[in-house]
Amino acid sequence: MPIVTVQNQYLTFFPPQNLTTSYVLTTNWLLKPHESGFPEELTYKAYDNCNGLQVKKSLEKKSKLRVTYISNSGDNEELYFLMRIISLFNKMSSIQRTIYCGKTDIEYLKQISNEGIEFVLREEQQQLETEVILCFGSSTIHFLKSGLPVIIVGTYGLGGHITPENFEFLLKKGFMGRPGGAYNEEIPIELLAEEILEVQHSRILINQNKQIQALIKKNQIPDYDTLYNHLELFSIEYWISDIKRRWQLDMQLASNIQILTNGKKTFLVRQHINDVMASFNEVEALFFKYLLEKRSSKEAYNKAAIPIKDFWLMVSVLWDKKIIILYAKS
Known about the structure:
Layout: E1 12-13, E2 24-26, E3 43-45, E4 54-57, E5 66-70, H1 78-89, E6 96-101, H2 106-111, E7 117-121, E8 127-130, E9 132-135, H3 140-144, E10 150-154, E11 157-161, H4 167-172, H5 189-201, H6 205-219, H7 224-231, H8 236-240, E12 249-253, E13 257-262, E14 265-270, E15 276-281, H9 282-290, E16 295-296, H10 297-304, H11 308-320, E17 324-328
Parallel strand pairs: 2-3, 4-8, 5-6, 5-9, 6-7, 9-10
Antiparallel strand pairs: 1-15, 10-11, 12-16, 12-17, 13-14, 14-15
């Protein structure tokens, strides 16, 4: 008797509504993928390259240090963050202040800004010259690659000047602000001024920059576009349609899938959101329990004990619903 059957009377799927892609590309490094119903194995972290925004050191000799805040494009709270930065910049007349942002609400932002604050619109310019960058979030990596000093001013407070010593910790926290900071906590103007002053007078920035570049390379964090292009090469049809290539796939039950039993019925349930993905009988449950560990395609096929055509049809459905994860052997 086959372990798994693909007839509807035995294996019934309940399609979730929020799984429409094969993977998730995220620049929100604090995202908990399980809580959104998506397997962590298919959630890839990438940094935002700000649509190729080029930032370089300002060579123009000026009496004031040039500091630029770069706003996060598409952030739902972008206006709120900009208002916070403007309130800080309004009190910092000793530096040359620039804000790089979108044109939405620009007239209002200019109304609440002092005359000394310059606005550069992302829709009109893809090059910036500055000496210090203020930013937060995944775009931080992009600006660190420019070699300029970066100070984190984010949703969780003042993270400060990024150094080789704090890089790894701030990276794990998504460059969102101060270690242990509270959401939308106040940013002390005095401390921000001190951070800028420290950067201005530091003589070890060149050496620090080399160390930070090495740390970025060590962590192998791709930009969004590069990762997207790489993942586009993985097509389930490419692997399964070829009768030789498909046997190179390994498979395993997704880490956010639980196997729950109620009487003679067994259910596949996504953790955290507790929605039922599929139901089947006790015998079929053995196959999914077998996939709790990574198995080769041939091992899974032998365990399923069904015709090859039905087996690969089932694999396609399980992958499509993110019940299993497929791994392509290099």
